[in-house]
Amino acid sequence: MLTIYHLSISRSERIVWLMEELGLPYHLETFARTPAIFAPESLKQVHPLGRAPVIRDGDVVLAESGAIVEYIIARHGGGRLAVAPDAADFPRYLYWLHYAEGSLMLQLLREWTVERMLPGADAAPGMARLRETTRQHLAMVDAHLAQFRHFAGADFTAADVMMVFPFTTVLRFRTLDLGPYPALVDYLGRIAERPAYRRAMALAGPDAPAA
Ligand SMILES: N[C@@H](CCC(=O)N[C@@H](CS)C(=O)NCC(=O)O)C(=O)O
């Protein structure tokens, strides 16, 4: 059975959520964060970077949430929650699936890192631009969700599985005012009602019991 190595309050909630949406069996192994909020050293025994998520599936050990999502859908999900290449939603599906880590998380973490490492960061050169870039990202996401019910289009897909964490669990670490983005807030409310999401968050969400 596929094992999910989950770090508490982390991106690995995505994989638990995906498995719940697909109705696939899995074994969940949870690691608690250290007091300094890092992953414990023991996670390096699973993967050299010691970050989450990681999965083990037979001989396969795979890290990187986007890669894991694509792997599970292709190998175990029969293509469910993906979009076929000839479908109209395909380019949007690909874009948001990759944008989640490739651009959005990068931006949110860059801003948060500067805030944490540089007291009085708002006076630092470049900080205003960093903050404005985050607002551009949020405005783009909001405008998209004002037009489409889900990230790829009308239907819920794995792109949604990738795109929710930056606006939910990430807020346990850094502030992000979502007030000016009503379509995004409405979308997150609808996601929170999904039975599979609720099950996943009970097991691996930010309020789930630690290891
Ligand atoms: N892009 C990677 C990021 C992996 C990552 O940085 N995971 C965080 C958890 S959200 C982590 O393991 N942090 C532990 C640490 O910083 O010590 C992915 O999507 O899987």
Account of the protein in words:
Helix content is 46%, strand content 9%. It has helices at 13-22, 65-75, 90-117, 127-147, 158-163, 182-192, 195-204; strands at 3-7, 27-31, 54-57, 60-63. A 4-stranded mixed sheet has the order 2-1-3-4, covered by helices on one side. A hairpin with a 2-residue loop joins strand 3 and strand 4 (60-63). The relative contact order is 0.16. Glutathione binds next to loops.
Report the CATH C-level class of the largest domain: Mainly Alpha
| Whole-angstrom Rg | 17 Å
Give the amount of beta strand, in percent. 5-15%
Provide the helix percentage.
40-55%
List the helices and strands in order: EHEEEHHHHHH
Determine the mean pLDDT.
Answer: 96
Spatial arrangement of strands, main beta sheet: 2-1-3-4
Which CATH architecture of the largest domain is right? Up-down Bundle
Bound molecules: glutathione
Keywords:
4-stranded mixed sheet, Glutathione S-transferase Yfyf (Class Pi), Chain A, domain 2, 4 strands, 2 domains, 211 residues, binds glutathione, Glutaredoxin, alpha+beta
Q: In brief, what are we looking at here?
A:
The protein is α+β, with helices and mostly antiparallel strands and 211 residues long. The protein is built from 7 helices and 4 strands, in the order βαβββαααααα. Helix 1 (13-22) packs antiparallel against helix 7 and helix 3 (90-117) runs antiparallel to helix 4.
